[in-house]
Amino acid sequence: MKNLYLVLAIAGAVVPYVFFIEFFAVEGLALPSFIGGLFANGAAGGFTSDLLITSLTFWIYLFSRSQGPKAWPFVLINLTIGLSCALPLYLYIVTPHSEPLPASL
Which pTM value belongs to this model? Predict the structure, then answer.
């Protein structure tokens, strides 16, 4: 599982940026245009809302834990790269190396 989390963290960093780079290549660095695109229609608004709520939940979880890695690096990764990188990277770091694969995989 640990290696899978690492692969997902890398994919979670690369895949969203492919779309972001495409957007900024067309629109430029216009932040109002970017924010408008996040809520351009019901589908985009639903995905954006889902992501914001899930990110907040992840942050609350991170800051509520007394053990494990510090929360701030993962919050920073969440804000600059995305939850699709921050969450699997966190799981990669906290998962023991010798954890067996679940029987369902």
Answer: 0.84
